[in-house]
Amino acid sequence: MSHEHVSYLELLARGAATEAYDRPVLLARASGAGPEALAGLEEAKQLALRVRAELEGRRRREAELSALFATAHDLAGLRDLDAVLRAIVQRARSLLGTEVAYLSLNDPAAGDTYMRVTEGSVSARFQQLRLGMGEGLGGLVAQTARPYVTDDYFDDARFQHTRTIDTAVRDEGLVAILGVPLTLGSQVIGVLFAADRRARVFEREQVALLGSFAAHASVAIDTANLLAETRTALAELERANDIIREHSAVIERASEVHDRLSELVLHGGGVHDVAEAVSEVLGGTVEFTEAGAGSARRAEGHAVREGDDWVAAVSAGGETLGALVLHGQPALDPVDQRTLERAALVTSLLLLARRSAGEAEQRVRGELLDDLLDAPDRDRRLLRERAARLRTDSAAPHVVLAARIDRTGGDADADGGRRESADRQRLWSAASHLAATRHGLASARDGGTVLLLPLGPGESAADLARQTARNLGGTLREPVTVGASAPVRALLDRPDQVAVAYEEARRCLDALRLLHRSGQGAAAEDLGFLGLLLADGRDIDGFVDRTVGQVVAYDLRRGTDLVRTLDAYFASGMSPARTKDELHVHVNTVAQRLERVGRLLGPDWQSPARALEIQLALRLHAMSAVVTGT
Q1: Most buried residue, 25, 150, 252, 513, by most Cβ within 10 Å?
Q2: What pTM value is reported for the model?
Q3: What is the distance in angstroms between the CA of the first residue and the CA of the last residue of the chain?
Q4: What is the side-by-side order of every strand in the sheet holding 319-327?
Q5: What is the β-pairing status of strands 309-316 and 148-150?
Q6: Where are the beta strands (DSSP E) in 121-165?
Q7: What confidence category does residue 530 fall into, taking pLDDT thresholds of 50, 70 and 90?
Q8: How far apart are CA 416 and CA 101, in angstroms?
Q9: Confidence of residue 317 (pLDDT cuts 50, 70, 90)
């Protein structure tokens, strides 16, 4: 083998450029080699160039196969479509040796096409390009589903040039462009491009290679679409499962509420038991209220939303009794709304049942009191049995109270009569409720109401009268005047004393109205000497003790003479000068004694009303002393 042939092998081994293969021929010609030697070298050169081209093609195909294999590997582990498409465009640009490569996708909804991935681009206008279907080289590729190539885009009349496309292409500086279709089945979904900023000719192998990359890109897009559809289907399936689970839970809640409400009704549960049961099942807080029924009344029978709350009216026979209000569940399922409405219906039934039972009990209580007032000679054993059924403690001291609503300026017309009738009904209802809570009795009588209530520990008849006036007045929001009798003891041993006590209570009630003390409650003991006239017991000792008892007690303890001083003071016309003459003491002594009296009886003891009561008490005290000889 000659030295020149070895040179060609060395050139092949180091992958020298094509121009380097001319050097051995030139050196041989310069050294004077003959025609035969030069012809042999020329033949060896051509052979070496053929070998070099074959090796270069194999290296190129190896690189292309490697890139296609890497692309297929990317597709197998597809996670991010943009990343796969970017890798495809990068490899296409590298293998084709172009300055720019890019991929556009069609947008059927918008009716145009847009840049999805660019590599090597420097123009923002080009990267954001959107163009109509059929425009430019890409439009021709999309229409024919075949590759198109141009070595000078602006001089090529095969494409529909537009100002938008030409401006963007010129802004990027592109000249030679190759475009191949991205297809799914028979549908073109986009175009893959390779482009240079100088004129060049794309070989058939390069067109085929870019087509292979386009096929991979189509597969990637199809795979991504399938994955997206699968994810969407899975998400919809999960949502459907959630809805099924939620509806199942709602139905279970509704069933649980039905069972619990049925149990409550059967076992005599109350309104608050219903609210508690519904609260536990619906997961919020349910309360019964009379104030929240206004808005619910407009949608009677249905739960309505009020802010973040749900309100269901509790009504019966056109009468709104209140409402169930659910707090803490603004987004309420329709089935749960029906549950709240069902609970409101059960609540109305319980209220009606309770009202019916209450009205029946009120009638029974009223009938017993009527018998004590009108027929006290009834069988006492039967009276005791009836009282026991009503949980009335007949052994405890009781007070009879006469109550009446007092209005100023009563009307005499028909409307006034209807109003008085309504007032009596309201008063009886409120009094019956009060009697039931205190284990007493109540009945409508003489245009008002009569009550028979037990005394509490340490409670007086006057205390009970005032408390009853406040209670009934607050309930009715009207002034209610109440007169009380003295305590009645051994109630059923002497039933006749109830009627006597009622007459005393009525006299006390009339006295309060005459004294302009409407809206108050009082017993005879509160009315001073007037109480002596009203009371049946004529408790003179009690009157004296309440009026001047402290002065009498002071004299007994200290040995003073305050009672005699008071007698002399009133006898002398409340004159201290004449009083000191009557008592034969100094006027200062009289002043000191009267000052002591004022501290014992209070600063208003010389007012006309108090002075009259004190003088009467002094006379009664003197009479008592004469009778008893003390």
Answers
A1: 150
A2: 0.39
A3: 173
A4: 285-289, 319-327, 309-316, 303-306
A5: unpaired
A6: 130-132, 148-150
A7: low
A8: 100
A9: low
The SS3 call for residue 408 is coil
Task: Please state the length of the chain.
Answer: 630
Is residue 271 within 8 Å of 288, Cβ to Cβ? yes
305 has which bridge partners?
310
Contact partners, residue 491, CB within 8 Å, separation at least 6: 387, 394, 395, 396, 398, 452, 498
Closest CA to 483 of 465, 470, 463: 465
Place of tokens 């030295």: 3
Question: In this structure, what token pair is assigned to residue 553?
Answer: 């007690």
Q: 281 versus 59: which is more confidently predicted?
A: 281
Lowest mean pLDDT among 47-51, 160-164, 175-179, 430-434: 47-51
Question: Which residue did the predictor score with more confidence, 533 or 9?
Answer: 9
Element (H, E) at 277: helix 271-282
> Residue 196: its pLDDT value, please?
95
Beta bridge partners, 322, equal 314
Q: CA-based angle 547:514:606, to the nearest 5? A: 35
Distances in Å between the Cα of 471 and the Cα atoms of 431, 461, 501 are 9, 15, 22
d(CA 200, CA 98): 10
Q: What's at 461, amino acid-wise? A: A
Closest CA to 528 of 554, 510, 508: 508
Sign of torsion, CA 589 591 596 597? positive
Reading phi first (left if > 0) and then psi (alpha if -120 to 50, else beta), residue 104 is in: beta
Contact 469, 520 (CB under 8 A): yes
Does pLDDT of 534 surpass 50? no
612-627 pLDDT per residue, tens: 777 777 776 676 654 4
What are the percentages of helix, strand and coil residues in the chain, rounded to 5?
60, 15, 25
Closest CA to 210 of 160, 149, 135: 149
Evaluated on CA atoms 366, 372, 377, 378, the torsion sign reads positive
Amino acid identity, position 543: F
DSSP 298-348: HTTTSEEEETTEEEEEEEETTEEEEEEEEES-SS--HHHHHHHHHHHHHHH
> For the CA atoms of the chain, what is the radius of gyration?
57
Q: Which residue stretches of 375-483 are H helix?
A: 380-389, 414-437, 461-476
Mean of pLDDT over the chain: 76
DSSP 351-364: HHHHHHHHHHHHHH
| Most confident listed range (58-62, 225-229, 394-398, 526-530) | 394-398
SS3 196: strand
Q: What is the pLDDT of residues 64-77, one digit of tens each?
A: 555 555 555 565 55
CB 304 within 8 A of CB 325: no
The pLDDT of residue 593 is above 80: yes
Residue at token pair 């923002």 = 124
| Partner residues linked to 285 by β-bridges | 327
The distance from CA 347 to its chain's CA centroid, rounded to whole angstroms, is 22
Give which of 467, 459, 351, 492 is closest to 401, Cα–Cα. Answer: 467
Half-sphere exposure (Cβ direction) of 363: Cα atoms closer than 13 Å:
5
Residue 533's pLDDT is 47
Going by C-alpha positions, the residue among 526, 530, 534, 540 that lies closest to residue 620 is 540
User: Cβ contacts of residue 477 below 8 Å, gap of 6+?
Assistant: none
